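Re: weekly structure request thread

Next one in the queue (104 aa):
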Amino acid sequence: MQGSDTALLEQIIKAIVDQPEKVIVERSVDEMGVLLRVRLDEKDAGALIGRDGSTIAAIRRIMKLVGVKSNARINIKLDVPPRGKQRGYEKPSSEDQSDNTGKQ
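Done, posted below.
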C-alpha cells in the first residue's frame, strides 16, 4: 500500500489541474499516520481547493477510505508557493494619507 496511495492521489490531482507536470506528491510516515504533501503551481491551487473547499474535501474523503482499507490515517497537506502582492493592492502608509475633509 506504500506507493499506491501516493499514486492514486497524484492521478486524481493531475486530472484536475491545468499544469499536471508541476504536481509532486511526497509521502512521509510518523506516529500520527501518513502525510501526503502535495506541491503544485500557485495557479492550480484554486481549482484543487474548489468553491468553499469542496474539491479538496472530497479528495480527502476518498483518501481517508483508502487509509481505512490499509489501517492507516492519511492526511493531505497542500504546499503552494506564496503569491506575490495580491492583485496590486498595497496598504497605504500613514504618510500617504492626507486630510481630505473638503476644507480649503
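Residues 54-69 form the longest helix (16 residues). DSSP finds three helices and three strands in the chain.
Next request, please.
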